[in-house]
Amino acid sequence: MKIHRFETTLRWSGNTGAGTANYSAYSRNHEIDGPGKAAPVAGSSDSRFRGDGSRYNPEELLVASLSSCHMLWYLHLCAVNGIVVTHYEDAAAGFMHEADDGAGRFEKVMLRPAVTISSGSDRDKAQALHREAHRMCFIANSVNFPVMHEASVSYSGMTTGLPLSTM
């Protein structure tokens, strides 16, 4: 078994002069960076939690991580199975429950990949590879909530959208 290490650096940039003297005295803004990265990711909390809505929040980054991991595995599996993908787009959504005391947890994430393949590719196989991509995804294998799929595969003006309920 291989062990892989991933490193990031998080820098809080939200000290507006008084530090955390009180709950409203500071900004939630921060930057996420890592060795060799082209640019940092601008982060904050969600605007509902006094954050900057123009920056990515941790919840969005979690949903994006699941979506990206699924896509990368899916593209790999298509490439090694003779499926030529010409377009991939995912409108992913995460659903989080917030308790009365402010704690919360994700209940589920729904991935909605819309894939276009070349006319010579096997659409049924392309659809089925979403299950395998889910099984292989490092991030989906690491969360304690369901990651669902409503994938569609199209070519030559035809679309099939077979919901895949995978966890």
Supply database-style keywords.
elongated; 2 helices; 167 residues; single chain; 2 domains; GMP Synthetase, Chain A, domain 3; disordered C terminus; alpha+beta; 6-stranded mixed β-sheet
Itemize the secondary structure elements and their pairings:
Layout: E1 9-12, E2 30-33, E3 41-43, H1 58-80, E4 85-90, E5 93-98, E6 104-111, E7 113-117, H2 123-136, E8 147-155, E9 158-164
Parallel strand pairs: 6-8, 7-8
Antiparallel strand pairs: 1-2, 2-3, 4-7, 5-6, 8-9
Helix pairs in contact: 1-2
What does the model show?
The chain is α+β, with helices and mostly antiparallel strands and 167 residues long. Helices cover 22% and strands 31% of the residues. The chain contains two helices and nine strands. It has helices at 58-80, 123-136, and strands at residues 9-12, 30-33, 41-43, 85-90, 93-98, 104-111, 113-117, 147-155, 158-164. Strand 5 (93-98) and strand 6 form a beta hairpin. The model is unreliable at 162-167 (pLDDT under 50).
- Helix-strand makeup class: alpha+beta
Largest sheet: 6 strands, mixed
CATH class of the largest domain reads Alpha Beta
CATH topology of the largest domain: GMP Synthetase, Chain A, domain 3
The strand count comes to: 9
User: Total number of helical segments?
Assistant: 2
Q: Beta fraction of the residues? A: 25-35%
Question: Strand-and-helix sequence, N→C?
Answer: EEEHEEEEHEE
The CATH architecture term of the largest domain is 2-Layer Sandwich
Q: How is the quaternary structure best described?
A: single chain
Rg of Cα set:
19 Å
**DSSP helix fraction:** 10-25%
Number of domain modules: 2
The coarse overall form would be elongated
Mean pLDDT: 92
What separation lies between the terminal Cα atoms? 24 Å
